[in-house]
């Protein structure tokens, strides 16, 4: 039986089997942390998009928290509970995004002076419970479109960020569905 030379790459789509080469690359730029030579995305662009995503999540946290405190009317308790739950989940998204920014060698941009300018979603207060539900649903729909676009952009160039965004996207879709259901339920009463 003839031994296979592990340094010869047969198919660029298949993973390398040259363990010595992998070890060499890992040691070469160890200060880069999780970002290895295999990282194929434009890191600066990914960091910019992640910071925009972070700003969007923070604006959503603030809007949901305001709506939690300001909800009034016959359905206020139900809506307020949903607003608080969504605020908590949006904060968790912001935390995950911040952690990923750091893993990629960036810095989370939480500057309040530029937060709303970088956010894809708007901070709209809403004066009635119906307004609040509608504005939160609009923001969720914006997040869904933004994350979908970001995921398509990444493709397989940054699978870790893509998987994180896919999980966040699933949450945003669930939030949109929750808000749509509340709007329908409250409209019928």
Note the topology.
Blueprint: H1 19-28, H2 43-70, H3 76-103, H4 115-118, H5 129-154, H6 159-187
Helix pairs in contact: 2-3, 2-5, 3-6, 5-6
Descriptive notes:
The model is unreliable at 1-6 (pLDDT under 50). The chain is built from six helices and no strands. It is elongated, with a radius of gyration of 21 Å. The protein has helices spanning 19-28, 43-70, 76-103, 115-118, 129-154, 159-187. The protein has one domain (41-187): Up-down Bundle (Ferritin), CATH 1.20.1260.10. By secondary structure, the protein is mostly helical.
- Basic shape: elongated
- What letter string, H or E per element, gives the SSE order? HHHHHH
**CATH fold group:** Ferritin
Task: Give the % helix.
Answer: 55-70%
Please give the number of β-strands.
0
- How far apart are the first and last residues' alpha carbons, in Å? 78 Å
**CATH class type:** Mainly Alpha
Number of helix segments?
Answer: 6
Structural domain count: 1
DSSP strand content: under 5%
* Mean residue pLDDT: 90
CATH H-level homologous superfamily name: Ferritin, core subunit, four-helix bundle
Radius of gyration: 21 Å
The CATH architecture can be named as Up-down Bundle
Low-pLDDT segments, ≥5 res? 1-6
Content-based structural category: mainly alpha
Biggest β-sheet: count, sense, barrel?
A: none
